[in-house]
Amino acid sequence: MKRIASCVYKLIALSTITASCSKSTVSNPPGGGGGISFSCTGISPKFGADVQPIFNTVCSISNTCHGAGSMNLGGPFTNYSQIFAKTANIRAAILSGIMPQSGSVTQAQINNLICWIDSGAPNN
Ligand code: HEM
């Protein structure tokens, strides 16, 4: 199962790179490939108000996850520049379902994360 999720992860990472090249911003690809879908209809998520709280409460909960001092493949996600540097991996990890490794994200949180990334991940 983990091998399938990581194959899906690699496929989405590739599609994320090609999607960012094509500057498409909404629901691209629909259904995300890992069976996880998202929609940007009617929302324009902001980093401070909508995205950072997700990292603080779901992802960066300890240093074995993405808190300060995290040494895993994702690393720490405690500020804008750390998160910005990994947006393609974050998009693929969410849409393939491999992350979060514990806990869960709601559909609204998925939409906010992916649509913020697809809008260029501004520091707003
Ligand atoms: C929505 C919240 C989260 C996001 C966006 C996220 C994102 C990521 C990303 C992008 C990677 C790198 C994947 C790669 O490049 O192959 C990763 C790896 C990892 N994450 Fe998360 N993560 C989240 C939550 C968590 C939580 C809650 C934990 C701990 C329970 C966790 C533990 C890990 C570990 C251990 C790795 C390394 C996995 C490996 O070595 O294969 N993550 N995460």
Structural summary, described in words:
The protein is 48% helix and 0% strand. The chain has one domain. The N and C termini lie far apart (37 Å). The protein has helices at 2-21, 47-59, 80-84, 87-95, 107-118. Helix 1 (2-21) packs across helix 4 and helix 4 (87-95) packs antiparallel against helix 5. The longest helix has 20 residues, at 2-21. With 124 residues, it is mostly helical. The model is unreliable at 21-33 (pLDDT under 50). The structure holds protoporphyrin IX containing FE (HEM). The site of protoporphyrin IX containing FE has 20 residues, from helix 2 and helix 4.
How many distinct beta strands?
Answer: 0
**N-C termini distance:** 37 Å
Q: Low-confidence spans: pLDDT under 50, at least 5 residues?
A: 21-33
Task: Specify the number of helices.
Answer: 5
Structural class: mainly alpha
What small molecules accompany the polymer chains? Answer: protoporphyrin IX containing FE
Report helical residue fraction. Answer: 40-55%
Q: Note the run of SSEs as H and E.
A: HHHHH
Question: From the structure provided, what is the oligomeric state, counting identical versus distinct chains?
Answer: single chain
Average pLDDT across residues?
85
Whole-number tally of structural domains: 1
Shape: globular
Rg on CA atoms, Å:
13 Å
| Portion in strands | under 5%
The biggest sheet, with number of strands, parallel, antiparallel or mixed sense and barrel status, is: none
